[in-house]
Every structure is written in structure tokens, then in C-alpha cells.
């Protein structure tokens, strides 16, 4: 039986880039389909992917975790310190073909452990309302709605969990 392992990955590796593109494509396409009836235009997708380097997920104040299903990189989550004992979870993604196989749980467990290792006492995140699979994952792992702690075009609901 194949199992999940999660380990840190450089934010600028080819594996990280492929997972970032897959994540961004999915969330962007969901928005575009909802708003326009078709997927993200290729030039817009390329601009969106290139707009975030992921450097905020580099040590010493961040990390990128990659979940491997056997030898396949199929999940990722970024973590960055915000200060005051708070860490933020970013870019949580499990490949659609691998959802339901335990990757989300492996990723969330590793992210909480990494946050504790950073000295965080609270883990927070923001997301969009239409990302229902992600929202279900967060609540299954003890996250609860909290007041907004940041703003942005994709920030529609905020979650937090005491560690």
C-alpha cells in the first residue's frame, strides 16, 4: 500500500514550481469558470504563477512542505511566521487525483509540527469561500473561523487553531 511522507522542499525547486503551478491553475480556473464560464486565459495564468516567487516560504522564517505519495509529489503547504507566536499556512494543495488518500491529513500534521518547531502557538490561514474541499480539511483538523487578520483578493474567510 502506498503511503504519504511529508518533507521540506526548497521553494524554488522544480518540484515546488510544478506544485505551485498546479495549485494556482486550480484556484484560478475555479474563479474564471465561475465568473466567465471558461478557464483562465493562458497569459493571465502565466502572470499569476510568476507573480509569487514563494521566497516568503524560505528558512529561517518559513518553509515549504511537500507531500509525496510514494515517489509522486502530490501535495504542498507553505508556512511562514507572522510574529507574536503566530504562523500562517499558505498554498495548501493536494492533487485532485490523490484527494481522499490521506495526503491532506499528512500535510496538516506536518504543518502543525513545523509551526510548533518555529515556536508558533497559533496557526492561521485565509481562503476563498468556494474552496470547499480546503475548508472541509481545515475544519476536520480543528481550525475554526476567526476575525480577519489580513486582506487580499482571495481572502474571504479566515481560520485559526491554537497549537
From TrEMBL:
Membrane spanning residue stretches: none
Pfam families linked: Acetyltransf_1
Keyword Transferase: yes
UniProt KW Acyltransferase keyword: yes
Location of the N-acetyltransferase domain: 9-163
Gene3D superfamilies: 3.40.630.30
Keywords from the named record: Acyltransferase, Transferase
CDD domains found in the cross-reference section: NAT_SF
Name of protein: GNAT family N-acetyltransferase
